[in-house]
Amino acid sequence: MVPGLLIWTTFILSIVLSFIKPLWVIYFIIGFDLYWVFRVSHFIFFVNLAYFRFKKVQKTNWSNKVREIDGWDKLYHIVYLPTAGEPVEVLRTTFNSLLESGYPTEKMMVVLGGEGRMKEDFMPKAEQIKKEFESKFYKFLVTVHPGDLPDEMKGKGANANWMGHRSKEMVDDLGIVYEDLIVSYFDSDTCVHQQYFWYLTYKYLTHPTPTKVSYQPAVVYNNNIWDAPAAMRVTAFGTIFWLLTELLRPERMYTFSSHSMSFKALVDVDFWQKDIVTDDSRIFLQCFFRYNGNYAVEPMYIPVSMDTVMDKNYLQSFKNLYKQQRRWAWGVEHFPYMMWEFRKNKLIPWWKKLKYTWNLTEGMYSWATAPILIFILGRLPLWVAGRGEDSSSVIVQNAPFVLEWLMAIAMSGIFVSAIISVLLLPPRPKTYSKWKYSIMLLQWIMLPITLVLFGSIPAIEAQTRLMLGSKFHLGFFVTPKSR
Asked: Which DSSP letter does residue 390 get?
């Protein structure tokens, strides 16, 4: 209940105190906006630094660096691709990107996993993909996850858990040492950079404890970015920038979306948890607690590209975007899990417990409250105080100018976001004129609206649902893929 109580206490007190003690709330809003000016300055510095590292890594020939390391050729890669209704065109693009990576395919295994409740839809697609690609990889495994297993929820985690156990049988039969097998857990629309597996292999070979870290690439939503509506693009880039800045602070990071890790660690935690929504980040916490806090995330400044939310029409696209953001915000389900595990585990240092508790709590709280406090509720105490006995107060007279000044500084973050978003775009399709670039810049005036509609509100709903109990808990939402 704690995360939900924090945000609702903030909103209720902001409204009530705006009428009872408006000066108190004005001081709070000014302090809060100052804090966000600091956050924006922090963002500008880190996103620029991350961008330059991002570009530098892509220019390096990681194949040559890997081949200089003795024993690199003993490593194998296994790629997990859980699916739930994605078109065969999406799957084909993903498989082609694996081949185009240039990594020796005789060292690569692929597991394509479908849902039993969607077997009639999945099997023809799986057979088509198998026919086209099976001979091009060392091993190709198709699995079908039964839909009626106990202690599971309908979601990607349950499917991935089934895939993991089935593939372990294959790995054991092949006699591959777990420490020599690197896992990549991808969404079915994930297209890897040409050097992804070379860079990942280099990271694995040069890390002092390669089986005690997850490897997190930069997730970008570029597959269909030119075709998606503006609101979807702005929201997608918000996620891209958040992850880029997090790469520079790996002590704060959890795994997110598509990522890689050791098969040894995956087996040690018995694969992905079967009864949660946010399995992609929970797997990090599973390993973190399994190794008593001695597990971390290793940043990879290289992209994996996925689909921006897009459907047949704008209305359905907006609905899907909201549901996707709400599912991501459901990562707040980690809070009670963490508190329970911290309470049981006496081997994790108290400062590390405090750090992870603060990072998750502050992140979820800011996600839900900041846009509404800055753009909506922050105006209420000014309006009340300007019509009451405090109207002649110096702070009341000057607060609007102070807030406008702070917001003007904060707007520099939008300018930086607009420039970097254009630099991150894939090549412009010939079907679009060069004028499309101007639209890509101007779309950022929508940021305050998207932060509220597709940031705060879905986060508030997710945390409120968690607070209200299991009857209101979310299930897994599969974001439809459309190009």
From this structure: T
Q: What is the pLDDT of residue 391?
A: 52
Domains observed in the chain: 2-54+359-472 (no CATH), 66-317 (3.90.550.10)
For 107, residues 6+ apart whose C-beta sits below 8 A from its C-beta are: 73, 75, 76, 77, 138
Strand partners, 260: 184, 215
The Cα 52–Cα 207 span in angstroms is 22
For residues 157 and 252, the answer to whether their CB atoms sit within 8 Å is no
* Residue 458 pLDDT: 96
Task: Say yes or no to pLDDT of 447 above 80.
Answer: yes
Element (H, E) at 213: strand 213-220
More confident residue, 390 or 431: 431
| Rounded mean pLDDT, 233-253 | 87
Closest among 188, 480, 94 to 308, alpha carbons compared: 480
**Amino acid identity, position 218:** A
Question: What is d(CA 460, CA 7) in angstroms, rounded to the nearest whole number?
Answer: 8
**Calpha distance 124→223 (Å, rounded):** 24
Task: For residue 384, give the nearest of 25, 6, 87, 94 by alpha carbon.
Answer: 25
Q: Which two tokens stand for residue 125?
A: 């697609």
Q: Quickly count: other Cβ atoms within 10 Å of residue 108's Cβ.
A: 22
Question: Encoding tokens for residue 317?
Answer: 């696209």
Contacts of 340 (CB under 8 A, 6+ apart): none
Question: Which has the higher per-residue pLDDT, 112 or 476?
Answer: 112
Q: Given a cut of 90, is residue 392 above it in pLDDT?
A: no
C-alpha dist (Å) from residue 408 to 365, 394, 411, 414: 24, 21, 5, 10
Amino acid at 129: I
From residue 85, alpha-carbon distances to 54, 249, 304, 399 in Å are 33, 35, 21, 53
Asked if 330 and 462 touch (Cβ cutoff 8 Å), the reply is yes
Q: d(Cα 18, Cα 16) in Å, to the nearest integer?
A: 5
pTM of model > 0.70:
yes
Q: Which long-range contacts (CB under 8 A, 24 or more apart) does 89-93 make?
A: 89/483, 90/188, 90/189, 90/307, 90/481, 90/483, 91/125, 91/129, 91/188, 92/129, 92/132, 93/189, 93/191, 93/223
